[in-house]
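Hi all, long-time lurker, first post. I run a small reading group and we've been trying to get comfortable going from sequence to structure in the token notation. Rather than ask abstract questions, I figured I'd post a concrete chain and ask someone more experienced to write out its structure so we can walk through it together at our next meeting. Sequence below, copied exactly:
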Amino acid sequence: MAFGGIPAERCPSCAETERATYALHAEWTLHECARCGLVYIDPLPDASLLDYMYRDTYAGSTESYFTKVERKMRRGRARMRALVRAVPRGRFLDVGCNGGFMVEAARERGLEAWGIDVDTHSIAYARKHYPGCGFEAATVESFIASREAEGAAKFDLLYCSEVIEHIPAVNDFVAALARALAPGGYLYVTTPDIGHWRRPRDLTRWDGFSPPAHCLYFRPAALRHLLARHGFAIEREHLAFKPGIKMLCRKSG
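-- Answer (accepted) --
Happy to help. Here is the structure in token form:
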């Protein structure tokens, strides 16, 4: 099935036009921004491709995809034990919640727990298995706009794991994250690290390289640069043995 693309004439993060060719792929060129160091594919996915990729991520499955649930819950509970040291109570939102495992782990810790995902089948699974949480099939931009229109309270903790690398309009996305947070609220974000010392030299052998689904490739400095533009200060960076970035950030103001 053929789709169009959006020519990436500027860095999706900082709008810089100066760039260097990072790598060549059969269908995309990867460029490295001269200012912030973000690596991005050209062309970027357009709306039709994004809709195709994410309208039914798991081919209609509401049960069989979500295997090893107990292991996922153990991992979510362990991560929440660390996060509640910063945010022991309040409102929690998982942006890109998949089957709702992290949302349920937050609810178990006493937080008002919400999850959003653009895949309706993931949301159906989450609603069925974790009815004590709130779930919406929505983008973060549309979800936050709806809450603002209703005068709903902002969130105290956002969780965004392995999502930001999928987002061509990444400034709109991070701006919506900032709008979602109360002043002093926290964001925990993870994404693959293209500059990690354990990343295979051959990009095609790296499980973090997955164009066009993964259209942006960050190093820690590039992610810090983007987050700072939207009022986030890095509180803690976690060392990652695998090629990944894990940051806990706080919204200023």
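A couple of things your group might point at:
The mean pLDDT is 92.
The two ends are 47 Å apart (CA to CA).
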